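User: I'm preparing a small set of examples for a lab meeting where we compare how different chains pack in three dimensions. I only have the primary sequence for this one, and I'd like the structure in token form so I can line it up with the others. Please keep the answer compact; I'll paste it straight into my notes.
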Amino acid sequence: MKIYVLLVFLLLASAATAASAQADNSNLELKAGWNLISSPVEDGIPSEKFSAQCKIKSGPWIWDAGLGNYVQTKNLQPYVGTWVKVEKDCSVSFFDTKIKTMKDLLLKKSWNLISGIGQLSDFGGCAIKSGPWEYNTSKKNYVKTDVFNPDKGYWIKVKSDCVLAEKK
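Assistant: Understood. Below is the structure token output for the 168-residue chain.
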């Protein structure tokens, strides 16, 4: 009986260790006011989980490049830049698999609000007219960047409809 209980315990501990090796425990840090963010995890972050940890004043909002306006959303999605205004500095905890590679992004002619991971120079397929632009919450201004961080959103303007993809 003791051996059986020990064996079950070891199997459960092994399964828990394997699950935690695939998922990451992380935080998404937000400052009071407007934040341009994205989900850094593959499955996204449901707004209920987000709003349980941060007092949302407005949003989350995504830019619909096809319609040319903002649309309120229920979830923070990976690869999609999202505006959210919070009452005070806060942190959203999540335990999920972090994005490790960039997926192909279908961009519309003009401005797109995206997110990703990696160096802009590693991607091609689009004639970029402007950006990517990252919003600096502390200074309330935009800063041009060449690096995508998966927990941030970025404005990017392209000359025509295209697919931003990793160079092969």
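A couple of notes for your slides: The chain is about 15% helix and 45% strand. The chain has one domain: 25-166.

User: Perfect, thanks.
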